[in-house]
Design a protein that fits this description.
This protein has 223 residues and is of the alpha/beta class. The protein has 2 domains: 118 residues, Response regulator (Rossmann fold), CATH 3.40.50.2300; 95 residues, Winged helix-like DNA-binding domain superfamily/Winged helix DNA-binding domain (Arc Repressor Mutant, subunit A). Helices cover 39% and strands 26% of the residues. Strands 2-1-3-6-7 form a 5-stranded parallel β-sheet, sandwiched between helices. The protein is globular and about 55 Å long.
């Protein structure tokens, strides 16, 4: 997942960013409304985590910009306040959920997994395809019941492909979902490297990753 994290409290931002990076998600951090709007102008995001109170404005202004642009980005608002009216305004403005500080990182991740399932029309916590089963909460993969050992980057890549199973996913789109702006040294060809490794580990799983030259990659059920 490509995530925009907008939080001016350094300790909170660091903790949230690390927790998602450990999953293999790409996180772009902004401490101000201006920085966040620059990111939104340059990149589409799967998820935005927005603090409401920022040094130069409100997180709800960023939310409004996303919704006016018809972005399907999932949005979770963070607030240090407990006023009901503020939470209602954020939800009515298009936020998908909110958390009041201080919060547990495990709850934040659980809420986001729930939002992702609903956005994909699934009630089950696990994603099943062919003989493959992926559990986003535990970050585990099995093939016909047997565990498959994947690195965090390989898990992130598999999650992207499973979210678009059956569809052709362009290489540059995969790259955007796997790497943040801070990882400038990584080139788009890194996708090929991780794709090769993932293919090898998925052999015999009942799924296969096809390469369509000039178009991208496609996760399909193996015959």
């Amino acid at each position: 997942m490509r995530i925009l994290l907008v939080e001016d409290a350094e300790d909170v931002a660091e903790a949230v960013a690390i927790s998602f990076a450990r999953r293999g998600d790409a996180v772009d951090r902004a401490a101000t409304r201006a920085e966040a709007e620059a990111f939104v102008s340059a990149q589409d995001y799967d998820l935005a985590i927005l603090d409401i109170e920022l040094p130069d404005g409100l997180g709800t202004d960023i939310l409004r910009r996303l919704r006016m642009a018809r972005k399907e980005t999932l949005v979770v608002m963070l607030t240090a306040r407990s006023e009901v009216d503020e939470r209602i305004a954020a939800l009515d403005g298009g936020a998908d959920d909110y958390l009041t500080k201080p919060f547990d990182l495990r709850e934040l991740q659980a809420r986001i997994r729930s939002l992702a399932r609903r956005s994909q029309g699934s009630a089950s916590p696990a994603i099943r395809f062919g003989g493959l089963e992926f559990d986003p909460a535990r970050q585990t993969v099995t093939a016909h019941g047997a565990p498959v050992a994947l690195t965090r980057r390989e898990l992130a890549l598999l999650e992207i492909m499973l979210a678009h199973r059956g569809w052709v996913v362009p290489k540059d789109r995969i790259f955007e979902r796997m790497f943040s702006f801070a990882e400038e040294e990584v080139g788009v060809n890194a996708v090929e490297l991780y794709m090769t490794r993932l293919r090898r580990k998925l052999e015999g799983s009942g799924v296969a990753i096809k390469t369509l030259r000039g178009l991208g990659y496609q996760l399909v059920e193996a015959p």
